[in-house]
Design brief:
The structure is a homotetramer of 255-residue chains.
Chain A (H helix, E strand, L loop, with lengths): L1 E3 L3 H14 L2 E5 L8 E5 L5 E5 L31 E9 L2 H12 L2 E7 L6 E7 L7 E5 L8 E7 L3 H13 L3 E8 L6 E6 L5 E5 L14 E4 L3 H5 L8 H5 L5 E2 L2 E2 L2
Parallel strand pairs in A: 1-4, 5-8, 6-13, 9-12
Antiparallel strand pairs in A: 2-3, 3-4, 5-9, 6-7, 7-8, 10-11, 11-12, 14-15
Helix pairs in contact in A: 1-2
Chain lengths: 255, 255, 255, 255
């Protein structure tokens, strides 16, 4: 994944922080869609880049919207997802990953699930925006690093979750869970597996945004996990807590 | 338009009633999608057919739904309109047209707009089902007969009206009015003009159904027309009351 | 429960049919909200009445709607359920109950779940209207008769199912299942238990209506039950198949 | 109105900038709900305060939510508005007001309507968050300053706009316009007048958020105003461009 700093100055500060952490790998000259970028590895083994220079999409005249503030014309296919909402990644040690993200990259931890004694972090939801989470970290169940739990798209209505579920059933896309509403973030959800096996979430209602500059991390106890995970709807299936991609064999990542 | 009787016996009774009215034209041997049908002309000049035998759609295996009670697989294009909801036609004499529909075809008048003294019917909404209207009649403003005001499709959510309006703006379909909610029938609406110029309505919420076997016609006064036409939203535009298809020139139908 | 015939003549025909079945109990002189009614017991032990004369609600001026075709002003509390959609009752012998309803009362069986060999009916959905079901019959699991599975209200949007689920969680009403979409009837659902213990369903989208006068019963195999019960969402919980009211002790109804 | 700085340090920087502008009035010791605050007057005559110390709501146990991340239990009355979305204020000189907000308070101008030659700003939409606007400025039509155009609440679904419009009609609240979708911000809207005469907006869909740190102001030409104001729905009524509160008599503010 690639993250964009808020400014060239912010990029310089973040690269310095990453280098100080010993996790930096150095600059690359650029790639499709972006310029110079700094690579680094997170404690959980995710290889990321941080950058400032991006290439904005060039939209062909025929694909332009009638709205000058919309990047391209709304398509007439499928359901109109609007943006990537967040990523959810696995980490063998969620607290270590969270600390790196907070210290080196400026993330704010918005919500967390803790052991009942409050001593250890089990899972963490973080953001650098007004969203309740741009990134979530869940525990890695296999002897593997760098695995992906899901990517989430924002839809904009709960009606869309029913529409999308119907399309998935009719067009051979496996549904994993939902619709329902999470306690954490108060977002509504539908989970699918795309044909390659990766888990996809669609959020209908993005829940409450965070505008309080003094917002304190909401800490759920492990014993409150059922409500934290699902406020309304059916409890998360076992697969949600065990399945990530790429797959592992005998507990070891194979791709 | 073609109407299907409730049974072969009902067809025989309706044909007898039409013949007695002097408006029958006789049987035809069948056409694409249906068998033997009886043609007739309504007082307002609409040429209709009534029949019993229909050919059910044969759906190719690749287009079958995963639901055995759904006719074909839900498509992934556009918005998922479910059915034709109703037709709206013009009549130079709405009362005469309504009387024919009630007497010869068994329609029930559900709602009507009357002159304030209650003496004359200005417009009429009729059904043979639990819907508040399968057919509506509005006054013909030109010296023309047999003209079409609009056909309405049922969508199923008000969210869809916003989706459809957005698609129309982006894909060059003229919007005439809405979204809003009618007083009559309490349906929500969006009106468009298809590229050929005919008016199309999409209903998001189909309003209240009628289950009372002793239901009495709801009679709105002409002075209540603003509320009857629009309960929430902007009043209907002038074009709604004047435009029908095919077009007229100097007040005379030209196609 | 009480059913209203379509006309005084239809009432006379239905009473004659019920008497011929040997299940009639005779006329009562009327009760709150209705006049003379004929009582009878169904094979499954439900005591019902059929009648024509009903008292229409008298609405105080302060509670009248601004719409002349709406019975009373929309309240500002809770979610705006519009009407009772259907009842679901248990029957020790679903086929016998269904046959009585069809023969004596004129119901049409719209969908059914059959044993895989097609020999026996397990559950049945019936209507006398354009709705896919006004009444559903599910097997009685206890040694009891006359038990109630649920009553369903119609809401009008899937957004409302999320709103209602949220209100239930916040105000101490037990949620049993949903939201999701049934295969049978294609309705969306949310199931709750009211404080007295009875199951309540709310339908957001009422699914497809039936307008075909030659509609044939859709027959699902027992092995297709997962799709018949839930098209999108989580499979029905075990309680849905076992819990009905009033409660039973040691398999015997106690209230 | 009161604005909260992002930190005590940010408060000090903003107060210094306001003082440098000559518009500061000095500190007050605090008031209901907040501590020490700095008062100032904007060029358009709005008296505002900026502060850091706020008192968080203390929620009685009976009003607590079942969700630890929700401030209080969702009420069962009316429609569940979630937060204030933005304010819209009038300014005799929009450009001067906008410049003060940008320079002294750190607002970013997200969208603007300009004269067709691009020389002058007619109206402006600004934010300090990921929302497309926290504050909007429209031209003052009367010889008055410090007037209020509307406050907007966020609802969360377009279905709610229809629900709210229905409630307003039934409960005597004047509707001014909508539902529809703005071009600017791409938000959906419904406008009402509360009993005291102030205009209230409800947003169903909050439109696109802004995550690009290099986002450039979207500039609409005056000739594009119809699309900028209304992407789908009916054009804004004349009252929208002339009515603000408190009222003016003979062009002069009277309250």
């Amino acid at each position: 994944r690639r993250w964009r700093a808020r400014s060239p100055q912010a990029l310089a500060r973040r690269v310095a922080a990453i280098e100080a952490s010993g996790r930096g790998r150095g600059w690359i000259e650029g790639d499709a869609g972006h310029g110079r970028a700094y690579q680094f590895d997170t404690p959980a083994g995710h290889r990321w880049e941080i950058l400032w220079d991006v290439d904005y999409a060039v939209v062909a005249p025929a694909e332009r919207s009638g709205l000058i503030n919309r990047a391209s014309r709304r398509p007439a296919m499928g359901v109109p997802a609007r943006r990537i909402d967040h990523y959810n990644l696995t980490a063998p040690n969620v607290a270590a990953e969270r600390d790196f993200l907070v210290e080196a990259l400026g993330f704010m931890e918005r919500e967390a699930v803790m052991t009942d004694d409050g001593a250890a972090t089990i899972a963490s939801w973080l953001s650098v925006t007004n969203l309740s989470h741009d990134l979530a970290l869940v525990p890695e169940r296999a002897s593997a690093t760098g695995r992906f739990h899901h990517v989430c798209f924002y839809g904009g209505s709960n009606e869309m979750l029913f529409d999308l579920a119907d399309l998935c059933r009719e067009h051979g896309i496996a549904l994993e869970h939902g619709p329902g509403r999470h306690g954490i973030g108060k977002t509504t959800f539908l989970y699918m597996l795309e044909p390659g096996g990766n888990r996809i979430e669609m959020v209908g209602d993005a829940g409450a945004m965070i505008f309080d500059p003094a917002f304190e991390t909401v800490k759920w106890k492990a014993s409150e996990l059922p409500t934290a995970a699902v406020w309304t709807g059916t409890e998360m299936p076992a697969s949600f807590w065990s399945y990530a991609t790429p797959p592992v064999e005998a507990g070891v990542r194979v791709a």
